[in-house]
């Protein structure tokens, strides 16, 4: 069901086949076990690294393969298509979210020490931004990093951190400057720090969720954690700007993963309705069912076209906020709708706890919250089409 597209060459098609083969041979057979273990094991990271799948966007001089963005879109669609939300979250946070900031802004020393091993799958990365009182509204972030001699001293707690339980390092959003008392929204004074997970004073608590079981989600408390001032990623107090830029990529990633998930839903439902005898034929012969699947497939194709267009815009200008937000909004909401409709079409079997569609149903629900809620996406789009047009 993968669409032919003007954005995809024969090279991308060949890459899709090899990724699909690798995932079905090496990852899918172990996925249930990793869901039970609630995290992705070290050996899986190594396998992904050996296959070059953790550094597709990173430059060759840092150990990446410097492939164009559409190779990543292909990889992410295929990763989404395996139907395990926790796995896809852990892998994409490592390869496209946390390490993105190292590749773009970190010193060459930090890149050698952390990015290179992360691309090889020898170190696992997490991106720790969210706090109990700072989710959609990052101006409420309170985790602090104060300079003391040659170190930053970090205090605060991050929550819902994907890969949090087993990450070897965190890309951590901290407040390095207190907001002015009269500041309406304190987006300034935020910085990004690299924190090695072996530093004393870090306490991790696993968080049990509705789905995304293999994602290794954890709450992380930092108590007087010291890291060298040289662990600053980019410039001091520029973290908010870096994150806003990085979120464009994060939203594209979420969209591409969701497309794969929708494809998986439709494929598994097609298999079911074709083989399920009902009335004078099969479920697949009933017109209402045919039309529902036709609608979903049409929505998949149109959302894919939007996502590819957003990726193309991102390549031209990393500040393609409107298009990336549209793609994230449309794809993650479609993923929820598709999972809901497909579970309905698979009937009671689909509702069994161990069924493929049941897992996809519960996993898809997180997509419209994590990495920016749908309402925030609508706010960004509205701001661009209404307020910016007025300015
Ligand atoms: C499975 C999972 C994995 C995650 N992984 C990570 C991670 O690795 N690292 C990390 O830092 N964070 C992570 N998060 C946190 C995620 O980024 C936040 O959930 C997200 O930023 C939204 O924040 P919140 O959940 O606190 O919701 P809140 O900000 O409390 O918002 C709650 C709801 O209010 C509504 N809302 C919010 N803002 C607006 C608005 N402006 N207008 C109208 N309605 C609004 C939305 O419906 C929203 O869902 C993860 C979350 C989940 C669920």
What are the main properties of this structure?
globular, Butyryl-CoA Dehydrogenase, subunit A, domain 3, 3 domains, Butyryl-Coa Dehydrogenase, subunit A, domain 1, 10 helices, 4-stranded mixed β-sheet, Butyryl-CoA Dehydrogenase, subunit A, domain 2, 4-stranded antiparallel β-sheet, Acyl-CoA_Oxase/DH_mid-dom_sf, binds flavin-adenine dinucleotide
* CATH fold-level label of the largest domain: Butyryl-CoA Dehydrogenase, subunit A, domain 3
Described by strand count, sense and barrel closure, the largest sheet is: 4 strands, mixed
| CATH architectural category of the largest domain | Up-down Bundle
The CATH homologous superfamily name of the largest domain equals Butyryl-CoA Dehydrogenase, subunit A, domain 3
Q: Which kinds of small molecule does this entry bind, naming each only once?
A: flavin-adenine dinucleotide
Low-confidence stretches: none
The number of strands is 10
Q: Give the amount of beta strand, in percent.
A: 5-15%
The chain-level structural class is: alpha+beta
Large-scale geometry:
globular
Query: In oligomeric terms, what are we looking at?
Result: single chain
Kindly state the mean pLDDT as a whole number?
96
- Rg over C-alpha atoms, rounded to the nearest angstrom: 21 Å
